[in-house]
Specification:
With 129 residues, the protein is of the alpha+beta class. Helix content is 25%, strand content 27%. It has 2 domains: 30 residues; 81 residues, no CATH class. The chain contains 2 helices and 6 strands; from the N terminus they run ααββββββ. A hairpin with a 2-residue loop joins β1 and β2.
């Protein structure tokens, strides 16, 4: 049995340039589309979009309380991390420290507790811009 070697086309300079132009032509619109359609999950973008939103500080950083935004946008986008409003409980051992329940915004603008409830310590003072 005789096997023939596989013939691989040679890459010339013009074919490399064409390949580069094709990938750039497809890559740049994809990056722009991704940036435009990405949800506003970073705190700075949330505060720019919703200047009146209240936040609490936790070990994982500042997190919005609830999903209500008001103004141009009525609520934060779906799957944005948030603290479930009214879920924090004070502790008698550390004044000003609370136990907060983390949740995610749903499509209706309410902060819903995750299926596996995630609780963390957070500071008791609300911060807003």
């Amino acid at each position: 049995m005789h096997l023939e070697p596989i013939k691989v086309p040679r890459l010339t300079l013009s074919s490399v340039k064409r390949l580069k132009m094709m990938t750039e032509g497809m890559l740049y619109p994809f990056i722009c589309w991704t940036l435009l359609t990405s949800p506003i999950r970073s705190l700075n973008r949330i505060k720019k979009t919703c200047p009146s939103i209240k936040t609490l500080r936790g070990f994982t950083g500042e997190t919005p309380i609830g999903c209500f935004c008001g103004g141009k946008v009525t609520h934060l986008p779906q799957l944005t991390r948030c603290y479930v409003p009214g879920s924090w409980n004070g502790t008698k051992y550390a004044p000003g420290v609370y136990v907060c329940t983390l949740g995610e915004c749903d499509g209706n603008g309410t902060c819903v507790k995750r299926t596996a409830a995630h609780i963390e310590w957070c500071e008791g003072r609300e911060t807003h811009k």
